[in-house]
UniProtKB/TrEMBL annotation:
CDD domains, A to Z: R3H_sperm-antigen (cd02636)
PROSITE patterns: R3H (PS51061)
Region (Disordered): 1-42, 140-168, 215-236
GO MF terms held by the record: nucleic acid binding
Superkingdom of the source species: Eukaryota
Biased amino acid composition, Gly residues: 226-236
Domain R3H: 48-111
Gene from which the chain derives: SPAG7
Gene3D superfamilies: R3H-like domain
SMART domains: R3H (SM00393)
Compositionally biased region (Basic and acidic residues): 23-42
Protein's name in the database: Sperm-associated antigen 7 homolog
Pfam families per record: R3H
Length: 236
């Protein structure tokens, strides 16, 4: 019995530390949850305060008549998102610029001064927007495009002979009409063709009838001569 009592006391003493450890774990978990909740509430308050500050700055920007755009200081992603939302609610246009997350910033534009693609490209390159310089660049691009188009048109036209080519060699090749007639005659000789003008009968009707009657009398005389040389005629 004494041994059992000793064993029981040992087991009891061994079970107590885990219970104490569980209590410590629960206490730490509660403290951690409380810290997280406090941080969340603090972050929520900071977001509300930041939004109020951005709303005030945006309102001042809208009332500033001589300010078409405003650039804000670099912000983190959450702050930029809040500013974009404030600008949209106020009826403004906003863009973020900057490659590095730490230096990325927001620019807000009034609707009547919405940026062009060229202006946005300048900001993306980290350059200041200069309307006069942009206009000069646009004019140079148009001039270059016109010159390129003119060069393409000149290159597309096939190179032709000089304007005085025919006059210079007319004594050798003759006029266009003479060359065309010569080509026609050569073709007629090669293929046995006779020009239509040569086929036209230029005789009068009376001459044609006399020729027909003469041929008819000649054919009758030949027929009669052939009949006289038949079986009843002299032998040859």
């Amino acid at each position: 019995m004494a041994e059992l009592d000793l064993l029981g006391s040992i087991l009891s003493s061994m079970e107590r530390p885990p219970a104490a450890a569980d209590g410590e774990t629960r206490r730490r978990a509660r403290e951690q949850a409380a810290r997280v909740k406090k941080l969340q509430e603090q972050e929520k308050r900071q977001k509300v305060e930041f939004r109020k500050r951005m709303e005030q700055e945006v309102s001042q920007f809208i009332q500033a008549s001589g300010e078409p755009r405003r650039r804000f200081q670099p912000m983190n992603k959450i702050e930029r998102s809040i500013l974009h939302d404030v600008a949209e609610v106020a009826g403004l246009t906003s863009f973020s610029f900057g490659d590095d997350e730490d230096s990325r910033y927001v620019m807000v534009f009034k609707k009547e001064f919405a940026p062009s693609d060229e202006e946005l490209d300048a900001y993306r390159r980290g350059e200041e927007w200069d309307p006069a310089l942009a206009e000069e660049r646009r004019r140079l691009r148009e001039l270059a495009a016109q010159q390129e188009e003119a060069e393409l048109e000149r290159g597309a036209a096939p190179p032709g002979p000089p304007n005085d080519y025919k006059d210079k060699y007319r004594h050798l090749i003759g006029s266009d009409a003479a060359k065309a007639a010569a080509r026609t005659m050569e073709a007629n000789k090669a293929y046995g063709c006779v020009p239509v003008a040569n086929k036209r009968d230029t005789r009068s009707i009376e001459e044609a009838m006399n020729e027909i009657r003469a041929k008819k009398r000649l054919r009758q005389a030949e027929d009669e001569g052939g009949a006289g040389g038949g079986p009843g005629g002299p032998s040859v």
